[in-house]
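Re-run with default settings, no changes from the original entry. Doing this only to confirm the output is reproducible before filing.
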Amino acid sequence: NLTCRTIVLIVFSFFQRLVEAAEDAHLKHEFDADLQYEYFNAVLINERDEEGNFLELGKEFILVPNDHFNNLPVNISLSDVQVPTNMYNKDPAIVNGVFWSESLNKVFVDNFDRDPSLIWQYFGSAKGFFRQYPGIKWEPDENGVIAFDCRNRKWYIQAATSPKDVVILVDVSGSMKGLRLTIAKQTVSSILDTLGDDDFFNIIAYNEELHYVEPCLNGTLVQADRANKEHFREHLNKLFAKGIGMLDIALNEAFNILSDFNHTGQGSICSQAIMLITDGAVDTYDTIFAKYNWPDRKVRMFTYLIGREAAFADNLKWMACANKGFFTQISTLADVQENVMEYLHVLSRPKVIDQEHDVVWTEAYIDSTLADDQGLVLMTTVAMPVFSKQNETRSKGILLGVVGTDVPVKELLKAIPKYKLGIHGYAFAITNNGYILTHPELRPLVRKLFVHLFYAFIVIIFT
């Protein structure tokens, strides 16, 4: 326990310095819609046009192979910034965020000087950009796309929000045929991307009747682990649109599931939400909300209007606002990811208002870029949220982003006092979800091994 506490305190000190630097920089910064700032774009650095001139946002960025980073060309003096392909890299919100977060460079370097065993350090912004230290060049795929969005990563989601129970309601009435149903399915898939092992969920399609996407799991919620999410995604393809949408039946079912599941003591025992994906609602269904959710409003309502028409938008907006949620409209497939992300900002508000800077330990994973002699390096990511301290936004609970760093599991094991284990003793690590993080007899069979970790819980046994 003393060892674990020491590790946590060391990591916390690094993060506290990053968080304080980010929050102070944002506090001093005044948003400027006309700000022009040439930053190091991780995709464009060192790129030249046909005439040999550096591209805009692609200035010269010195990269030198470094043994600590498996001889990858990096810049240990500066960080650089990755912006998702579907976002404009000179959007005023991006440019302003990149500008004030430049102050993190000094802290990144100082942390690395204090502890050379550190690997990647980074700041994932709520606006979508990703500042990474040491700076490294990012290469698009064969289609010229970089799909990475830091806000979709588990370290970001776990740090930004609390564990949650979610019921997703999908309208499959006749009006949802064609592109609308396609967008609805993609919206559900994107919501699943934002759920982790500490979350619980179910998906219900509705028209005149209720159709559980997985019929074997009626009336309950399941853990949002990788296997369950993939299983539900496969079943999404079986949905087709027909009939009339009876939203009242679906809402009653959703509230009953959340209530019953909460009373069992299972699930996240924290936040609860209903995600409604539809092309319209003919009523506000206030009697249902009055029966199940008012006045406490413990279940948040997030409504996603599919399609370009806005005839029933007012009802969906009312439902979301009356139940501490959020409304958004998704017109095309390109709109899905950015609009789904909006609910995370709402769920993060209580943590921001209460200034809960909790350190979270995410799942462990194989980092192929830092493979050792055996070809496998097991890593875990540690993260902490960053909040706005500006007076005009503090009461609204504005999340600025999340800072994180990657920690090799072997570095955690080095901190264990082996003299306390005895001759035949050994150490192993498990997670709060029961997954083995590391064990002397653990033999990864595939390169793409994923081991789930939320809190680093080191267990030392004596044999």
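The longest strand covers residues 378-387. Confidence is low (pLDDT under 50) at residues 446-463.
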